[in-house]
Write a structure and sequence with these properties.
This protein is an alpha/beta fold. It is built from 20 helices and 25 strands. The strands form 7 sheets. Strands 3-2-1-11-12-7 form a 6-stranded parallel β-sheet, with helices on both faces. Strands 16, 17, 18, 19, 22 and 25 form a 6-stranded antiparallel β-sheet that branches. Helix 13 (about 335-365) packs across helix 15 (about 400-420) and helix 14 packs antiparallel against helix 15. The longest helix has 30 residues, at about 335-365.
Length: about 650
């Protein structure tokens, strides 16, 4: 039997110098909805999300927080991950651009592009926007045309990517694959950009330290966009992508401001490396607050947690997908959010589910009733429901979430009207009336089952509750949507426990609560706070590790706090005025670190080059004799004079960056 078809989709990889707001949440929730929908359509789906952790911006934020970059990004990535879980997002792969497998994929991709003749060395001077991580076409002193923030003049040695060579191949590709870029407006924008001519692109930096090193070309690190885009590939096997079968991606979902990176640079890198191109790139619009794009620098962000706390995660998911036409910008307002909650969720779906459950509880002994003869008004509703199934699937296929939900809610409204005209509650206990009531209740419950299966991708939590209320097996998410038809609800099925779905909420009070939680959240310090300075600095960077005062035992969780990796010494030099110290640069797989080690009296600097050592990578940086040291090399302390002997890996060719456990 052939396996399920594979479907691979991605969210953008989020910057870790800030925390998520509902603009980011929008990208992720849309992806999660598609993921759930595709699963219900029988696909073997992988969805990747993750964090984009390199670049000057992170370097600066970490410095401000007084922690090493690795610690800073680890804490921020954990925050992003936790939030997605709270929002019911089922990411299959969470890729961090500081993951070792990712660094290897990026280095491999660079090498493929270079081996194929599309990379050459050069110099570049330009205005750089550190917030967008891009050179911008403005004069010194002018602000970034995209985000309005100051730019910096940067001159550096770098490697160029021959983007200019891809103008024709890209235009041919767009012509052959008219659906590659969606929606139409974005496709036209990209086409005219490429038709206007492409300049070669600087893809390495020597002015940035916190990045993935170019092997053999240190101190070059790869440009953050070359790095971040490759995350889509490293999440599904990297160089071994053929083994997972999930590359090329079916869909990259992105915000409209990053379409150029995805629809021009990324396909060009892949073409240069001889790799397959993703099938589609869909750019959604922005969520605006007071008519401006939500952003930390404008101070107009709205965070998801207060909304989830007051109205629940499904309310936020529903609002984001219902209120904005996918592909266009949409305005966020608390007012509209609570309005939608009360009218569509509390009075609409919630009310229909609780009425149906109460009537079946009372009249059919807590079971799905056995319908008798259907009358034309029942058949009209049945026909409408069957039509809605087709229309909703078609809309979901085109990412028309708003229209899909509108269709489903029109069916809910039609069912409310049906109940009002049929008024089963006023029927008597006569045999004929009982039969009629059973038919009406079965019809209502069958609409509810169909509505539940169709809303599950958007409302996973509430749909699961209604599903079990109707006594349906498993989760609605495992119901095959291709087989959804009117008439599948089995009479006699025992109903599950009735639970309140969307309690009505007073608008002013709800808004007040959400706004005050948002204000409180803004006052909270960042999850990465400035640590206290270390009490007694150690003698040197190398582990002249003093034995613990008492033979106190530590748990494995304490040990796990120390992150040790295999590093390779790239440069080593003496420090003027410090006889014991050597200044080393060490490749730890994901970056090059400067580390001072107290080994100068025992090791010749030039003999250390290329040596593999054990490095503690998550120590807070500190200055030794005025030189910054970011990490510690492990050494044994031997003999009465405490001679350091470097720990190493003589017997095996261990991978740089491998973790010591
Ligand atoms: N790190 C890059 C993406 C690299 S992908 C290989 C980045 N990160 S981001 O955190 O700034 O943005 C990630 C996504 O959030 C983008 O798709 C962006 O459009 C989306 N949003 C951020 N603010 C937004 C709104 N106000 N509204 C809707 N989406 C917006 O760019």
């Amino acid at each position: 039997m052939p396996g399920k078809p594979k479907y691979y989709l991605t969210t953008p990889i989020y910057y870790t110098n800030g925390l998520p707001h509902i603009g980011h949440t929008y990208s992720t929730i849309v992806c999660d909805t598609i993921r759930r929908y595709k699963r219900m359509r029988g696909y073997d789906v992988v969805m990747t999300t993750g964090t984009d952790e390199h670049g000057v911006n992170v370097e600066r934020s970490a410095k401000k927080a007084g922690v090493p970059e690795s610690e800073f990004v680890a804490k921020m990535a954990a925050e992003w991950r936790a939030l997605w879980e709270e929002l019911g997002v089922q990411g299959d792969e969470f890729i961090r651009t500081t993951d070792l497998k990712h660094a290897h994929t990026v280095q491999w991709l660079f090498k493929q592009c270079r081996d194929n003749g599309f990379v050459y060395p050069g110099h570049y001077t330009g205005q750089y926007c550190i917030y967008d991580n891009a050179y911008v076409d403005v004069k010194p002193g002018e602000n970034c045309p995209d985000c309005g923030r100051p730019t910096e003049t940067v001159t550096e040695a770098n490697f160029y990517f021959k983007l200019s060579a891809f103008q024709k191949p890209l235009l041919d590709w767009y012509a052959k694959h008219p659906d590659f870029i969606q929606p139409e407006a974005r496709r036209n924008e990209v086409l005219s950009f490429v038709e206007g001519g492409l300049r070669d692109l600087s893809i390495t930096r020597t002015s940035v330290r916190w990045g993935i090193p170019v092997p053999g070309e240190e101190p070059h690190v790869l440009y953050v966009w070359f790095d971040a885009l490759t995350a889509y590939l490293s999440a599904v096997g990297g160089p071994q992508y053929e083994k997972t079968g999930f590359w090329p991606a079916n869909l990259h979902l992105v915000g409209k401001e990053i379409i150029r990176f995805h629809a021009v640079y990324w396909p060009a890198f892949l073409m240069a490396a001889g790799l397959p191109l993703p099938k589609q790139i869909w750019a959604h619009g922005w969520l605006l607050m007071d008519s401006a794009k939500m952003s930390k620098s404008l101070g107009n962000v709205v965070r998801p947690r207060p909304i989830v706390h007051v109205l629940g995660m499904d309310a936020l998911r529903y609002y984001l997908l219902r209120e904005t036409v996918f592909g266009q910008d949409g305005n966020f307002s608390y007012e509209a959010l609570v309005q939608r909650y009360n009218s569509d969720l509390a009075n609409g779906l919630g009310n229909l589910a609780s009425r149906a459950a109460a009537m079946m509880e009372k009249n059919s002994g807590g079971k799905i009733p056995q319908p008798a003869a259907f009358q034309p008004q029942d058949t009209v509703l049945a026909t409408r429901a069957q039509e809605v199934i087709g229309e909703v699937l078609e809309q979901y296929d085109q990412l028309g979430f708003s229209l899909a939900l509108e269709e489903i809610w029109s069916l809910i409204a039609a069912t409310d009207k049906y109940l009002t005209t049929e008024h089963p509650w006023s029927l008597t206990d006569s045999e004929a009336d009982q039969q009629r009531r059973a038919t009406i209740l079965w019809t209502t419950a069958e609409v509810l089952r169909i509505v539940t299966a169709l809303t599950y991708p958007v409302l996973p939590e509430s749909a699961t509750r209604v599903w079990s209320l109707l006594g349906q097996p498993d989760q609605p998410g495992s119901f095959p949507l291709d087989g959804l038809r009117w008439g599948q609800l089995a009479p006699g099925t025992l109903l599950g426990k009735s639970q309140a779905l969307f309690p009505r909420i007073e608008k002013a009070e709800a808004i007040e609560r959400m706004e005050s939680m948002e204000k409180e959240a803004q006052k909270q310090p960042s999850p990465v706070t400035v640590p206290a300075p270390p009490s007694t600095p150690a003698a040197g960077g190398a582990a002249a590790a003093a034995a613990p005062a008492a033979a106190e035992k530590i748990g494995i969780e304490d040990f796990a706090k120390v992150e040790m990796r295999v590093g390779q010494i790239k440069t080593a030099e003496r420090i003027v005025g410090a006889d014991k110290l050597l200044k080393l640069t060490v490749d730890i797989g994901t970056e090059i670190r400067q580390i001072c080690a107290g080994i100068a009296q025992y090791y010749e600097p030039e003999k250390l080059i290329g040596r593999k050592v054990a490095v503690v990578v998550n120590l807070a940086p500190r200055k030794l004799r005025g030189v910054e040291s970011n990490g510690m090399i492990i050494a044994a302390t031997v003999g009465p004079e405490g001679r350091p002997v470097l720990a190493g890996f003589p017997d095996e060719d261990v991978e740089i960056g491998a973790r010591l456990k």
